[in-house]
Amino acid sequence: MTRSPTAAQRGVIDAADPVTGRLRGTEAQLAALVKWGFAFRHPRPPHDRFLTPAGHRIREAEEAGTPASGPDPGLGAEAGNTASAGVFAARVGGEEAGTDAGSARTREVRSAWQGLLELRRMTNPDGAVDRPCGWERTHLVQAAALALEAAGHRPAGADLVGYRVRATPQPEAVAVHEPDPGALRACAATLEAAGWQVGEHNDARSRARYVLASPRRA
C-alpha cells in the first residue's frame, strides 16, 4: 500500500538527523512513519526510529522541490517487479520499454542505495556497511540489482543489451546474465565491492557465461 506522508509527518522526516536519519517525534508520529514504510524501528535498545530509503527520498524531494515517490515496499518490492505508481524498484533487467530514465531516476537510485547502506549500518550487528544486511538476504534479486544500477551498470531492456538478475534454486544466490564478457566481469567486480561473493560459471545448456553471487557473511 502506498500513501504520501501528512504535513506533520513531513515535518518529522525533514527534521531527521542529516547523517544517520534518526527521527524525533511523538510516539504516534513515529509509529505511523514505520507503518507506512518511511521509517524502521531499530532492533536494539533504545529502539530509535530511522528513515528508510523511502523516507530519505521524501526528504531529498522536499529539498529539491520535486514530487516525492511513495514508500518503498522493501526497498520491499518482490524480485522482478518494476517501478509503478510512484514506488521505487531496482531494475533487474528485462523491464518493459518506457521505464523512466534520466536525472530523476539517477537521484532515486542514489537515494535508495544510500538508504540501504544506512540499513546495513544500523542492522548489521557490528555496524558494517561493506556487508549485506538481513533485508538483502531476503530480497536477493532486488538487492543485487540495486547494487548494479547504483554503480551505473545498464539493465537489459526489450532492445537493449545489459544485465539481467535472476533468482536461482540455490539458497542465497542470484545469477547475473550479461552477454558482453567485459560488462559481465564489471558486474562481478561491482557486486564483490558491495559485499557479495561472486564466481563466473557456464550455463549447462547454452554454455553462456554468467555470474553467481551470494551475500557475504563475514
Automatic annotation (TrEMBL):
<feature type="region of interest" description="Disordered">
    <location>
        <begin position="61"/>
        <end position="80"/>
    </location>
</feature>
<protein>
    <submittedName>
        <fullName>Uncharacterized protein</fullName>
    </submittedName>
</protein>
